[in-house]
Design brief:
With 369 residues, the chain is of the alpha/beta class. The strands form four sheets. It has an eight-stranded parallel β-barrel with strand order 4-5-6-10-11-12-13-14, surrounded by five helices. A three-stranded antiparallel sheet has the order 1-2-3. The protein binds zinc ion. Zinc ion binds next to helix 12 and helix 14.
């Protein structure tokens, strides 16, 4: 099935909307949180866990998969879905963000970006064309263009040059796409300059991508700036295409951004913070390392339906996390990923019921982020 997006409902008081994305590996109900599976698994969880939680789509990371296992293995195994035994949708980023985070190990030119492998220090190269060819080898349902990422706090001329090259590369990525069963999303850049964001949204809309991401946020700006530029940029994007806010965020970030009209998110927070013993609930965070929880008999959240909350106490999880036991990391990751899924489900239901405005106001005002 070719890629499509349909808006099923629009909130009257906010820009929130409820939609469905169709891909050749199944449908995705939006707003959706996408779990990050950098190397082929969501950290600390396996696919049976993800299926029992109701995870609809996972992320793969082009930069890491290019280095290991590499194109040959992926070709021989018939793509990434086959290699990792995951038959649901997969989105891959282009690796741009990772490569540009290596300041002394990459050289950017108009042709593309040269970088060093962190595995063996060998030189590698991505052009927009070779990057799309590799994402097609992965076989991802949603591919991202190779963009030029700069910190959101960059000076205007640096942000403008990166944005202009991002537009030229977006055009090249689009021309390089051979498999049109899968979708290729454009990425709006422009740091924290309204005129640049406007120019970027217009240039990419002109190229007519099936979906649009907002890039270059969650990399150095304040929370208020992120909220403002999410709202500002989302409003510039076509209403009939999915909008993806990359690398965001906390439960509050997600709900605030859904209010702004964002449909898709990804972030490492649920599993990363789990390792530090931070559990998320509808009433806020529970810090499991706190000494006071050593003898706590109650679960993370008595209203949560996940198996961790049905069986284990905060005191037991405190013990596992304090002792750095992998099982502790897994159990808290399971609960957090469950919570993120239920939060998105709740948002979808509230949008359809016409009550999202009051639900989101309640959630943002009472739950500690
Ligand atoms: Zn739970």
């Amino acid at each position: 099935m070719a890629f499509s997006f349909q808006v099923l409902g629009q909130d009257k008081n906010t820009s929130a909307r409820r939609g469905v994305v169709s891909t050749s590996h199944g449908v995705i109900q939006t707003p959706v949180f996408m779990s990050v599976g950098t190397f082929g698994s969501v950290r600390a969880l396996d696919h049976v866990d993800l299926e029992s939680i109701g995870v609809q789509i996972i992320l793969g990371n082009t930069y890491h998969l290019y280095l290991r296992p590499g194109a040959l293995t992926l070709q021989q195994r018939g793509g990434y879905h086959n290699l990792i035994h995951w038959n649901a949708p997969i989105l891959t980023d282009s690796g741009g963000f990772q490569i540009f985070s290596l300041p002394h190990q990459r050289v950017i030119s108009e042709q593309g970006v040269e970088f060093k492998s962190y595995l063996d220090q060998a030189g590698r190269f991505f052009s927009p064309e070779s990057n799309i060819a590799f994402q097609e080898t992965i076989g991802s349902d949603i591919m991202m263009v190779l963009d030029v990422c700069v910190p959101s706090t960059s000076a205007r001329d640096i942000a403008a040059r990166a944005m202009e090259r991002t537009h030229r590369w977006a055009k090249r990525c689009k021309s390089a796409q051979k498999n049109h069963e899968n979708a290729l999303f454009g990425i709006v850049q422009g740091a924290i300059f309204e005129d640049l964001r406007k120019e970027s949204a217009a240039a990419l809309t002109e190229l007519d991508f099936p979906g649009y991401a907002i890039g270059g946020l969650a990399v150095g700006e304040t929370d208020d700036e992120r909220e403002h530029f999410t709202q500002y940029t989302a409003a510039l994007l076509p209403a009939n295409k999915p909008r993806y806010l990359m690398g965001v965020g906390t439960p509050h970030d997600l709900v605030r951004s859904i209010r702004a009209g964002i449909d898709m998110f990804d972030c490492i927070i649920p599993t990363n913070h789990a390792r530090q013993g931070v559990a998320y609930t509808f009433s806020g965070k529970v810090k499991l390392r706190r000494a006071a929880l050593a003898i706590a008999e109650e679960s993370i959240d008595s209203s949560c339906g996940c198996f961790v909350c049905r069986r284990y106490s905060r005191g037991y999880l405190h013990q596992l996390i304090k002792c750095d036991e992998p099982t502790g990391w897994r159990l808290v990751s399971y609960h957090n990923t469950w919570f993120y899924e239920r939060l998105m489900e709740r948002c979808r239901d509230e949008i359809m019921a016409g009550t999202f405005d009051s639900f989101s106001a309640w959630f943002l005002s009472h739950a500690e982020d």
